[in-house]
Amino acid sequence: MPTPPGRKPRKAAPSRRPLTQDGIVAAAVRVLDAEGLDGVTMRRVAQELDTGPASLYAHVSGKDELNELMLDRVAAEVRLPEPDPERWQEQVKEVAREVRRVWQAHADIARVSLAMVPTGANLLRIAEFQLAVMSAGGVPPAAAALAVDSLGMYVDAESVERAMYGTKLGEGASPEEQLHTFISGIRDYYKALPQDRFPHIVAMVDELTAGGGDERFEFGLDILVRGIASHARP
Amino acid sequence: MPTPPGRKPRKAAPSRRPLTQDGIVAAAVRVLDAEGLDGVTMRRVAQELDTGPASLYAHVSGKDELNELMLDRVAAEVRLPEPDPERWQEQVKEVAREVRRVWQAHADIARVSLAMVPTGANLLRIAEFQLAVMSAGGVPPAAAALAVDSLGMYVDAESVERAMYGTKLGEGASPEEQLHTFISGIRDYYKALPQDRFPHIVAMVDELTAGGGDERFEFGLDILVRGIASHARP
DNA sequence: ACCTGAACACCGTTCAAGT
DNA sequence: ACCTGAACACCGTTCAAGT
């Protein structure tokens, strides 16, 4: 049956729901996941919400704030363990691994983290945990404070580097295949270097290009935590 | 006296010398130093050389290559000590400090280093030194290889963060003053956090915001080198 | 108060045309 | 071979005008 004349549609079904900051940030994260951080432009996010870029400025002060909001939204995915002072070294590592996992699940969001002082609630939650568990483990306050900094920087930097391998190569093959062709390119280049000027690099090509990113990450993490532990009282 | 007719000017004084890759990179570094990495655009570099952006593409494949060439040119400024295996831990630190010094002398060039596998001769020279001195100091190859990575990442990340404080604030006051107002802003924010949710952050505000960048950097560096040393044979 | 279209002042890169 | 002007397909942000 056709609708009788003079009858308005029941609710006008507003397919374009009103803009909210939360909706904007959610859309931005969708674009991030699909197209990487460089794909997250004000225009692209607006398009995702069927509007123009100027409309976003009523809910977000600009690109920088949007970046920070995206990061904190993503940081909510980080799961923290039950604090156990006996295992503080292992727990510090666990959290670092978990943050890395979440950063890597969202393209190159780590770039934002690296360029920011943490202020969002979800980021602070992580810092609070690390400070708490290190303090309980006997790391003095000054050392613990600087240690969260160093740990955060390390996780961020490693994630940025790793994300880059994925993007620099074409979007063709599988991520692992991409990483492999990338690494073997580097290996060939290092092997072809003049041996008299770079004897150690040439001799250590295999070690320099060894390990998936996981082993490399674990090694740096282990180094950091050993160093932090050397500041703890027994 | 006027110049007689039919006489060409002595040498035509080519005020716009022909473009070379070296000249382009030098101009790019000048822009970098004066206006930061974001100021280095193909257009701006071309302008510096009295030409248009399209002219650069005959000597440089694009923006990425220009960035890498800039970094390697700047890396030439890094001075390496005479290798002394007895003092390998101190020398590894010295080089890290020196790289940090040079990166910070050139705005936020560290961002390029972080997003790159080192291939330029001057960058490789630094890596070669670190590998050599650690090997001589008794660090096994696998550990030394991963250690250069971690050290590089740490220096780069610290320099990126530090460069950011300078840029985010206005260009008004002195760098130290900028850093100070920036840090005290952070301190106020942390102090105002709800104490029940973030007890350690609130309690450790002073430690978290303490120290000029130098002490913080030294601490992270010390942690890393202690960790590396724990892998060395005695 | 929120949303919008149009504009401003930029980007990196390409390409046909010149020398 | 090198250089150029003009154009293409983008940016972030502002602002007057609408509802």
UniProtKB/TrEMBL annotation, chains A, B:
<dbReference type="Pfam" id="PF02909">
    <property type="entry name" value="TetR_C_1"/>
</dbReference>
<keyword id="KW-0238">DNA-binding</keyword>
<dbReference type="InterPro" id="IPR036271">
    <property type="entry name" value="Tet_transcr_reg_TetR-rel_C_sf"/>
</dbReference>
<dbReference type="InterPro" id="IPR009057">
    <property type="entry name" value="Homeodomain-like_sf"/>
</dbReference>
<dbReference type="InterPro" id="IPR050109">
    <property type="entry name" value="HTH-type_TetR-like_transc_reg"/>
</dbReference>
<keyword id="KW-0804">Transcription</keyword>
<keyword id="KW-0805">Transcription regulation</keyword>
<feature type="domain" description="HTH tetR-type">
    <location>
        <begin position="18"/>
        <end position="78"/>
    </location>
</feature>
<dbReference type="InterPro" id="IPR001647">
    <property type="entry name" value="HTH_TetR"/>
</dbReference>
<dbReference type="Pfam" id="PF00440">
    <property type="entry name" value="TetR_N"/>
</dbReference>
<feature type="DNA-binding region" description="H-T-H motif">
    <location>
        <begin position="41"/>
        <end position="60"/>
    </location>
</feature>
<dbReference type="InterPro" id="IPR004111">
    <property type="entry name" value="Repressor_TetR_C"/>
</dbReference>
<keyword id="KW-0678">Repressor</keyword>
<dbReference type="InterPro" id="IPR003012">
    <property type="entry name" value="Tet_transcr_reg_TetR"/>
</dbReference>
<protein>
    <submittedName>
        <fullName>TetR/AcrR family transcriptional regulator C-terminal domain-containing protein</fullName>
    </submittedName>
</protein>
